[in-house]
Amino acid sequence: MKSSKNDDKIIISGNTVVHESAGGYLFSEENGKLYVALLINTEGKYFVPKGHLRKGESSEQAALREINEELCLNQFPIRKVAKVGLVKYSFNKPNDPKEHEKTCHMYVCEVQNRITIKPLIDEKYVETRWVEVGVALEKIEHEREMLLEAVNLYKSYRNLSSFVSETVNLLKKTLMNNLLAIIDSGSYSSGGYKPNWSDIDLLLVVKKLDTPTKLKVAQVSSRLKGNYNIDLGLNIITGKDYSSPINPTATLAGKTLQALLEMSLDDKRIIYIVDELGKAYIPSQNEIKEFSYSDIAKFVILNRKALTSSEVNNPEKFKKIVEKQIRYAFIMMKLAIQYYEINLYETKLDILTSAKRKFTDYDFLSMGKILEVTKNWSLIVEKKDLLAVLKIVDDFIENFSKYFFLKVSLKK
Fold first, then answer.
1. Radius of gyration of the chain measured on its C-alpha atoms
2. pLDDT tens digit string along 224-256?
């Protein structure tokens, strides 16, 4: 999308021009078929809508704006489903000695019907078209793998939405008037959920937290796990804990404080809430530092405990242990960044990218390799391969935690 150079998020550093852009795959289903909206240029090549971020704009905001503008949707409401990932490449311009580097954030979005789309007059495209995804995979020249991943994400989120809806309905039916709120404390609402990898984590707020309530929640969790191949994690607090906790860093789990913090930054994390529930408690800056620091230490201890009691000869259980340690590593990175600055992250790649920017004197190459491994996690089944992954992650957890604790101590 064209805009003035003053508006576009472009950074010139020496002989390099860094561009940041966003876009996405707009899907719509009709009669059992899935379609994606594509742009066609004068050469008959197919593209997805995308363009530069503007100053002060998030990548999600830019993606939704670009899709809306380049398809001439006239502010028609479209919904972000998930973030697919990043596309990075370099290019040169005629008569320009500078090297240009571009990073593009790509999203999965949807509309209910195949609404009318047309190309923007002042762009290089001459036609827009709803293309059935099978045909689109043949037509599009670049980023076919990402389009395929976007299709798989879209389909998995449809199943996930059914799971979340059933979870909410079952919790409301089981807990009735005792249920005050359901808050996403994982990757579902951020769009970072990955099938066969991520869990669904929810924070429940109730009026009365007694033994019958705890057992009812356990029954709901057990029933849902039996119906879906999705791991569900449920944390529970009272309405008083939600609005005015006593000594929160001592009485509330770090994950709960994290959920309250992220909910204050993104209200889409609220899945269900009753009007009578008061304003949520927001951790102070000092409290954020305290629980971020202590939770990093907690994950180091949990990692050591898991590895010293792991069942290496049980492939299924061992793989679950390795998965959990990978999650610990990325959560630790997020907490370390959060100790200094508060941001929301949509994917593990976003966390890794921010960690590299924040801790420039630490080598994150090993975790970049782990991130690549997780893209084909279902193919990792051999014990030797799992052990190799575990060694990398374990080394990172031990070494990065020492690096972080030393860094903090030197600042005091």
1. 23
2. 877 777 788 899 999 999 999 999 999 999 999
